[in-house]
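Quick start: read one record
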Amino acid sequence: MTAVDDGEPRSPTPPGRPLPQPFEWLLRDRVTGGVTVAQLPNVPLWIFLAAAAVRAVADPSGAARTALDVVAALALTWWAVDEVVRGVNPWRRILGAAVIVLVAVGWLAR
């Protein structure tokens, strides 16, 4: 999770032990200079998590199950596309692309 930007200028590499070069490139936030691996869920990810939780707890069948599957897949795809387009570092963009592929493969395998 990245820190909240307080408007103060930051060094591209904070003090302390630097990451190995490949990880610097992969994980370094291009705006804040911090390392970002995961972030708090945004709206599409909350929608996906809610749909997945309802599906797991209620275990619906028929049209309700299909509706939850569609909502979950669309929300996860929305999140993934947003990461590919606006991800703060290459790791987040790669993660988004991988999720798009996994969602597509999941739907094609049905």
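The longest helix spans residues 62-86.
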